[in-house]
Predict the 3D structure of the following.
Amino acid sequence: MTARIIDAHQHFWQYTAAEYEWIDEPMAVLRHDFLPTDIEREIAAAGVDAVVSVQARQTIEETQWLLRMSQQFPFIAGVVGWLPLASSSIEAELERLAGDRKLRGVRHVLQGEDDEYMLTAEFNRGLGLLDRFGLAYDLLILGRQLPAAIRLVDAHPRQVFILDHAAKPLIRSRVFEPWRTLIGELAERPNVYCKISGMVTEDDWATSSIASVAPYIDGVLEAFGPRRSMYGSDWPVCLLASTYSRWMQTVREALGELSEDEQSWIFGRTAEEAYRLTSAKEDG
């Protein structure tokens, strides 16, 4: 059977200024709804079979909304939702929602917290429950938070972690260190995967090219290898600097010297393994 091509990182939202205050004036192109019918056209044109939808708001209501859409649109293979990991109610929330097979991971916007937040007892207690429910944890951090993230991962050796956007390297400034060294250290932990996603918007939006992002993609592959790296579009945020199809073409060109088998891991098999995805047929 031919491996599915999976976009392991994209978002949906129904835009309101109050709920998406982070979408400021330079990002005005994102100030409208982005829904499954919109990306369905994009993935069909790009030859993508399935997507993983990732939270954009830190509410249980959004997680439930994403799960409902995943039932309506079979190409949504999995959902990475938000749950209150630091709350005393987290076990009850997991019991309530983890029965939905499309819930495949949890994410908190750690890039918006101070470095010590991820090391608190409350947050770690909640995160420590995820493996019991077969859920991955998406690490959304900045490069400066990598040392704290390594400590977090070391506290949960059985938990699957997936590093979003390669920890947002400073592509616009053409800075590699200490990012490259630190993701190499993080990658020494075999329970960590990494997404080749979100890079185009860390570059200069007007001039981003394969020449500027390819060295950072190479940095991810040097650290994690193809079997722990996965492709993601970060749609619709990628639209600030690219189109859906152009970003996929950029990554394909950057990976052009890899074997067909290695590319099949990055474009689908790694996501299936890390998130324990099932096919639409298996979901019934």
